[in-house]
Amino acid sequence: MMREEIERATAVLIGKPLWGCGRAANLATFAFGERIKTVDFFGKPTEVGEYALHVQCAWHIGRGEEVIVGSRDIYYPADYQSEDEEIPPDFDWDKHPNRRDRLLRSLFEDGARSFTVQRVEVRLAGSLRLSLSDGFYLDVFPDDSLGREHWRLFMPRTEERHFVVTGRGIET
Question: How many distinct structural domains can be found in the chain?
């Protein structure tokens, strides 16, 4: 039943462009569909997607067998290339340029590139695979057994209910 509810909720993404990924701390914010101009919390102009997918669990964007960018890339300096390198002791992923932000800017070509959602595959325990154009995919996979939120899908700047997947099931 959970799988069917997730399939219904995520079907709205099929045919929509995925055009950006931002973050709030280590939470990933994926923007889909039409670009909507608005202002952010600080009153600065910004764009949000017609739909937003906020992910608080593990995720990655891949192509074939390669992970292009993943959630844990945030914990490495922007120019980090190999696990043989030392991470500077004063590195703070939330304040200094990090690898995840750099890879996402490159993938989305600073907002000029998007990927169309071709199919949504709902997997076990609230995990998803969004198959995207050009052979790319976004995998979202809850990675703990606690009851906290793993991901949510919603329409920003509307009163529509959020669809939330937690370790204990679905909340709306």
Answer: 1
